Amino acid sequence: MNLSIETSYTNEITTEESVFSNEQLGFIDEIRLPKVVRFIRADKFDDKFLNSSKDVWEFKYSGNLERISFKDMSCVEVKITKFLLIKYIYKNSPSHLGDRFRNIRKFFKYLSGAERRINFKESKNILIKSTDDNQFYFSIKFIVTTFILEGFPGFSIDDEYDLEVIKKPKSTRSSLYYEEYE
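Below the sequence we write its predicted structure tokens.
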């Protein structure tokens, strides 16, 4: 009996490298991605590793079969997206990685469509406008935090405080409540 849920994510959104400055393109060029990514929190039924050099990532994790396609993306877009996803895996887990992929693509698409460059100011404005979408909000916050910590051009460690004071989305679990027991 196969209890896994197959989820496939493609690159229906395309962006232009125009969202990146020349300095940022140089930074991206210097990124060295690991060929193999280890899933640190993998259970005995989960895949333990991911070959990050492939154009399609397929793996089983938490009962889900994830498929993320990087085909038809520019090499710059592929590299920065893989970089962010790998950072996410190491900080969290690959669970729902396809959702993060879609949100990263949506973020870059928004910047590209608005003909804006990626920097803290633009990212903060998008973050402020996205408080009605929890998943997108926290994906953007992860992107911005990663860029700050990695020293990505256009982002500074001084921006981290500004990031923390932005209003967070309301909880989606409003039916939860606490009771005091004696």
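Helices lie at 22-30, 75-91, 97-113, 120-129, 134-150, 159-164.
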